[in-house]
Amino acid sequence: MALLDILEFPDPRLRTKAAPVAEVTDATRNLVDNLLETMYAAPGIGLAATQVNVHQRVLVIDVSEEHNQPLVFINPEVTVLNPELGEYDEGCLSVPGFYETVQRPQRISVTALDRNGECFSRELDGLLAICLQHEIDHLDGKLFVDYISPVKRQRIRKKLQKEQRRQD
Ligand code: GNR
Ligand code: NI
After folding, report:
1. Fewer CB near the terminus (10 Å): N or C of the chain?
2. For ligand 1, atom 11, which residue shows the shortest CA distance?
3. Which pTM was predicted?
C-alpha cells in the first residue's frame, strides 16, 4: 500500500473529468487500497481518485466513528429520491482549512460496482449522502467551492496559493 499525494485547489488537474472503469482488476483494487490508506491517514471521510491525480471513476468513503466501515464505489450513478435540499458545512482535503455551507439533495440512491466488480445499489441519507455527492463531484471535476460566491472562492484561492508558494 502507499500514501498518495493529494492535489490542492486551484490545481487545474482537479478539473479533469474521470473516465469509467472498463473492468475492475487487481490494479483497480490496488488503487482502492491506496485511496483508503490515504483517506485514513489524512484523515478524511472520503476520497476520490481525481484528488490523487488518477482520472478513473473510483471513490472511497468511511463515515463511521471507528473508521472501520470502508465503502468503495466504482462507476457510481446517483438518482435523487427526494429533491429536498439539506445544508452542511463541507470541507475538502483538496481545499485544506476551509469550510463552507453547501446545499444538496438529502436522499439519494446509488448504483455502483464494488471492489470485486459486482454491481450493487443502496439508498443513502445523512452524511453518507452528502459525502457521496461531494466525491462524485470530484470525479466530474467539481469542487465544493464552486457552490459558494465568486468573492469567497477567490479569497480561498489566494490564501491557498500563498500557502502553496511557501511549501514549494
Ligand atoms: O473529510 C472530508 N470531510 C467532509 C466533510 C463534509 C463534507 C464532505 C467531506 S469530504 C472530505 C474529504 C474529501 O475531500 N473528499 O473529497
Ligand atoms: Ni473533497
Report:
1. C
2. 92
3. 0.98
